[in-house]
Design brief:
Layout: E1 3-7, H1 15-24, H2 26-31, E2 34-35, H3 58-65, H4 70-75, H5 83-91, E3 97-101, H6 104-112, H7 116-123, E4 128-135, H8 138-151, H9 159-168, H10 174-185, E5 190-194, H11 203-211, H12 233-249, H13 254-265, H14 271-277, H15 291-300, H16 302-312
Parallel strand pairs: 1-3, 1-4, 2-3, 4-5
């Protein structure tokens, strides 16, 4: 039976980098019997231009949610392919393994309509399905999510309020996030990987290949360059203030703001970027939340993390992530 590995994220666990890795090595993976489908990608990528884009399968998520959600209906692109076109592509493939990847599978389905996970199983009823999920320690996860939202000019509130709002929605509760996937596919078919350097000793690419039992070909594959620019804490605080002015006062679009940030504040070669980074700590802190606040945040998820470690990783000590050092 063909095995379909569904990588569901989560966000801020090098998902874009991993998708880039799978995209640029698509032909080599194909020859090894692993299909990384074109169907369901946000953009219709032609074979001859495959290395100029990143294949993800977000459109499959939008396909599931578009019927009752205007936002996802607008994001859905019929030309990119739906679940039916995916099944056709898989049927035409002579290999025995398929890889799908979209971080929106974890967040959008879990927090919007978890019942759609059952529909995925219906589509893939003739296949052996394995769910791969990477989980990041919650303090680092929220910091990264917040930084990304600020950088994209969608957020200008302070980080404490941001975290509070997301926690109210269930974000960061990994046991709750995995529950609907377990109910549909079974805990034995869910591969949980903590996203920490100490636990991903040979890196995310090797670790993912190990999850799909293909790590023996790691040396044959191309490693992509970093695809995301990560701003530091001082840059985030300055951009957050600019967001408040630009978005609220001057009614600028996120796209207009992003263009300025990427070319100036987030460009290491620009003087403005260096000036912001060199602002003294007594004026602008070099961290968004303190070590004490990180510990308090992790304590809120202590029970959830323990249950994930015990149930999915079979760790008797119940430790999912490394402890925060004071």
């Amino acid at each position: 039976m063909t095995t379909i590995y569904i990588h569901i994220g989560t966000h801020k666990t090098a998902t874009t980098s991993l998708q880039k890795f799978l995209t640029i090595n698509r032909e080599k993976l194909y020859k090894k019997g692993f299909l990384y489908p074109l169907s369901g990608s946000r953009k219709k990528i032609q074979e001859k231009k495959i290395n100029n884009g990143i294949i993800d399968h977000h459109n499959l998520v939008f396909d599931l949610l578009k019927e009752h959600n205007e936002n996802y209906r607008q994001k859905y692109n019929q030309r990119s392919g739906d679940w039916n076109s995916l099944l056709e592509e898989i049927a035409a493939f002579s290999g025995r393994n398929v890889i799908l990847s979209s971080e929106f599978l974890a967040t959008c389905l879990t927090y919007n309509d978890a019942s759609k996970i059952g529909k995925i199983k219906q589509y893939l009823k003739n296949y052996d399905v394995k769910i791969i999920v990477y989980l990041r320690r919650q303090d680092a996860y929220f910091l990264s999510i917040y930084s990304q939202a600020v950088k994209a000019a969608f957020e200008w509130d302070n980080i404490k309020n941001f975290i509070h709002r997301r926690k109210q929605l269930g974000w960061g509760d990994y046991y709750k996030l995995l529950e609907p996937w377990k109910n549909v596919f079974g805990a034995e078919n869910i591969i949980v990987r903590p996203f920490e350097k100490s636990q991903l000793i040979q890196g995310i690419y090797y670790d993912f290949l190990k999850c799909i039992q293909l790590n023996s070909v790691y040396e044959e594959l191309e490693i992509p360059q970093d695809v995301n620019v990560s701003p530091n804490a001082k840059q985030i605080q300055v951009i957050c203030l600019l967001n408040k002015l630009a978005r609220e006062l001057f009614k600028k679009t996120p796209q207009e703001c992003q263009k300025i940030y990427l070319h100036r504040l987030l460009n290491p070669s620009q003087k403005s970027s260096k000036i912001v980074s060199s602002i003294p700590n007594f004026i602008l802190q070099d961290q968004l939340i303190s070590a004490k606040e990180k510990i308090q945040l992790m304590q809120a998820f202590e029970d959830s993390n323990r249950r994930v470690a015990e149930e999915y990783l079979k760790r008797e000590n119940g430790q999912l992530f490394e402890s925060i050092k004071n």
